[in-house]
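The protein record filed here:
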Amino acid sequence: MKRVIIAALIVSFIAGCAAKHIPEWKSAAFRHMEAYKKDALTGDDRMADIYFSRALAEIKKSGDLEVLARAHLLKYALRAAMLDPPGDDAFTAIHDIEDSRENAAYFAFLTGGPEKADGALLPPQYGPFIAAFQRGAKGEMNAALAGMDDPLSRLIAAGIAVTHQRFNEDTLTLAADTASGEGWKKALLVYLSRLELLYKEKGDEARALLMGKRIALIKD
């Protein structure tokens, strides 16, 4: 399997075909997954669910379990980016039948963090992030996050760092700036809220108050 950044996880199988003819199910699934990503990150949960279900329906036409597993991995990745738990065991049910070491490594990365995953099987751009994470070097980890070209990969890694308590204010700011730059409103509010909480925990009531006001303005 070609190793690609996680933002292209589903694309590598659905749209990255070298053949001149791309089956309709692949192109349709790709369109639905792209719409799903946008709506999930911006906060239109109803439409996100609809597009994800449509993508699964197209993939199931082929019976390709590896592509189906990757669709669920992308869903888990988006949830990790927004600090949510995976939420279901769909991937595990597929993996019990269709074993993929790289899929398993990414699932472990999303659910257990970098220390639970085989880094050699993950997309290579995660290497510096994982190394810094494991050393507890937050400054280096944030630099590795900033160096990721793909915004979604950056946000996913930041989400994993926050979930596993290897973060600081700069991590949250970087994640918020990434979401802001892409117009991902739901993700932006998640990280602004964590910043507000961090300021409260530090006793910085002035910054917490300003952050709360910013959040209120964005929500309206």
